[in-house]
Amino acid sequence: MGRADLHPLCAAGTLSLAQLDTLAMGDRIQLRKGRIHEVSGAGADIFAAIAAAEHDQSVLWIGLYRDIVSLCPTGLQAYLGVETVILVEAVSRGELLWAADQALRAEGGFCVILEMPDMLSLKESRRLQLAAEQGGGLGLILLRGGVSTSAAQTRWECAPLHAEMPTWEWTCVKGKNGESGAWRVTCQGGQNAKDTLHMAPATPP
Amino acid sequence: MPRILSIWLPQLPLDRLTRHGDARLSGPFAIITEEKNAWRLTHANDLALRAGAAAGQALADARAICPDLLTEPSDPVREDLLLRALWRWADTLSPRVSLDPPDGLLLDISGCAHLFGGEEEMGHEALTRLKDLQVQAQIGIADTKGGARALARFGAQDVSIAAPGDVARALSALPVAALGLPHTIVSELARAGLTTIGQLGEQKSAELARRFGLHLTKALQTATGLTPDPVTPKAADPTYAARMTLPEPIGFLEDLESVLQRLADRICRKLERDQRGARRFHLTVRCVDTGDHGLSIGFARPCLDPEAILRQFSHPLSKLEIEYGADWFRLVAEHIEPIRLKQGSFGEDAKRADQRLILIETLGNRLGFDHVRVFRARDHYVPEHEFSQVEAAGMTPSWSFAPRPRPIRLFTPPEFIHVETPGRPPLNFKWRRQSYATDRAHGPERITPRWYREEDPRTRDYWQVQTDQGRRLWLLNYPGDADEAWYVAGELA
User: In what order do the strands lie in the sheet with B4-8?
Assistant: First the structure.
């Protein structure tokens, strides 16, 4: 894993925008490219949308029928360039994993959002991780059915909060390189929400 | 005066099955079609005819007359394909061939006949070659299209010829039906005592037109050559196909791929010469033991790159089960579209667009192109109709939509909730087995669907609700409904 050696990752929470291979979200949160990241909780959709918007490439949203048809671009457009999204409807777990593997492996470094209806085994997540390393894109796995041991770089717990403006709490519950921390993200209003996100650490770093 | 040769294929649907080696044709057999809620025979083979069945008979009657009659519904699409194949084949007789559907071909043979040693010899030559193809035919040759058609269908011999300038006399003995008129006119003429074309010619055309319509006089004039009626030939669309027959069967994947490579190279050279690309490719692999296997791939844009064809075929080829090997291959390009050849893409944007399309092709070929989609905005005001998902292949990315407060997940149909403490919107409710309490609500946004369409005509009230638990939901209620039911229509960001 040459890349990991070349770019020692700062502990999340400290500012390092210029770092290669990492994806800066808002102020301080960083997601490494060429890795897969797991997201769970009721706010996972919006986390994925904001992360995908930061990643300047086509976005592949892969899921089963019910996940794909319920996506609503008229609401998503505030956070994500909807024209960059390619929807991939799979009919089985095997097709889901195959499609995610192909999309992560493909040349071009796509952002791949995979809606996983059940748990991902260690072997499967390792295969996806290897594919992501090959393609150099960003893999986001929305865990709908519970978490398990995996090869993902980070795991995020995202929950919407009760507040005046749309607010979420994003907690990094697992990080391979010691990433950790929690953020409170608020959408400040305005039509283009992704430009007016406000982030503050929920717990002092 | 042009010379026209008409080929009539009276048993085309039966010939199609004969060519396929259908074993049922060794007994009484008929082609049937549904007409006014009744199955009727359209074509019957010799054995069936001898047993008493006849074209036009109801199937029930035919079964009663000939109990061991076997039948097959007609397949107009395949019959048309056979006719089109014969249309291309007819190039060997004359360069000017036109279709005469459903069961005929018209050839302009002016200046061609001497190549075969005369018109009669040409007609017999055509019949012989058609017989080799196991297709039954009758031929008529005359100065006009109408005359040639009439002679082919009603002539006394297999090859009926009207000498140049003699078409009116040759037709005079033929029945009126030979003019190809609607049944109603033919039966009206029969009631008036006019049964042959010769009898029609004796009448004043003004009288005929007055009593039977201009159809009749026009048909008569074109058939006898008083009004010109030329053959309009149309060249068959070029087919981009290549095939390869091997002396020994092969079965290894590398061998199959090298065969495919050579076929793809040949087709792509042809496509490139004509500045065309194909959106689909179909490969037929004939195994020595299990017969033909068809493999298809698709592309998101017209393609003429052998490498891409090979890459997309690699998955279906690897799935193909070959035991004893395959020795016959055919690759066809379908959905041909013109392309503008361009220099290999330069620049970051072009490269990205290429990578995007390659990925769409890879996913589409395995999952189906209808499963790889993009959003498309629609000019509408009902939330679920404001956008649609369309196939990504062949679409340029675009999205334009005025911002509106909309959820990021939209549930269609909306999900029913259990109201615990009523209110507008409810103060406490249960959704997906979880309890929620309303803190703030914003609304309603009232939407009246289009009553003139087949959709739920009830007026809807949408509320943006912030729950104490954090989730922001889009609640829906139909005002005026008796049961005051509430639904979750979506989840807001």
Answer: B97-100, B104-108, B4-8, B138-142, B159-161
DSSP code per residue over B56-73: T-BHHHHHHH-TT-EEEE
Between residues A21 and B193, which one has the greater pLDDT? B193
What per-residue confidence (pLDDT) applies to A69?
A: 93
Over residues B142-176, the pLDDT tens digits come to 988 889 999 999 988 889 998 888 888 888 888 88
| Percent of chain B clearing pLDDT 70 (strictly above) | 98
Cα B280 from Cα A26, distance rounded (Å)? 44
Cβ–Cβ under 8 Å, residues B174 and B146: no
Confidence of residue A201 (pLDDT cuts 50, 70, 90): low
Nearest CA in chain A to B358: A106
For all residues of chain B together, what is the average pLDDT?
A: 88
CB contact (8 A) between residue A106 and residue B407: no
| Helix H or strand E segment including B98 | strand B97-100
- Within 8 A of A90 by CB-CB distance, chain B residues are 367, 371
Query: Cβ of B398 under 8 Å from any chain A Cβ?
Result: yes
Cβ burial of B214 (10 Å; 0-12, 13-18, 19+) is exposed
Cα radius of gyration rounded to whole Å, chain B: 33
CB contact under 8 Å between A187 and B362, yes or no, is: no
Say if residue B184 is exposed, middle or buried (CB neighbours under 10 Å; 0-12, 13-18, 19+).
exposed
pLDDT of residue B344: 56
Interface of B with A in 435-464 (CB under 8 A): 439
DSSP H helical ranges for A118-194: 122-135
Contact A73/B387, CB-based, under 8 Å?
A: yes
Please tell me if residue B101 touches chain A, with a CB cutoff of 8 Å. Answer: no
> H helices of A18-171, where?
44-54, 65-69, 73-76, 93-105, 122-135
Banded model confidence at residue B236, pLDDT cuts 50, 70, 90: low
Radius of gyration of chain A (CA): 16
Q: Determine the distance in angstroms separating the CA of A54 from the nearest CA of chain B, rounded to an integer.
A: 17
Fold of B240-338: Dna Ligase; domain 1 (3.30.1490)
- The SS3 assignment for B385 reads helix
CATH superfamily of B1-27+68-236: Reverse transcriptase/Diguanylate cyclase domain (3.30.70.270)
Give residue limits of the domains in chain B. Answer: 1-27+68-236, 240-338, 345-404, 409-491
Both tokens assigned to B398: 């675009």
* All domains in chain A, ordered by first residue: 23-156 (3.40.50.300)
Question: pLDDT tens across B41-81, in order?
Answer: 999 999 999 998 888 889 999 999 999 999 999 998 899 88
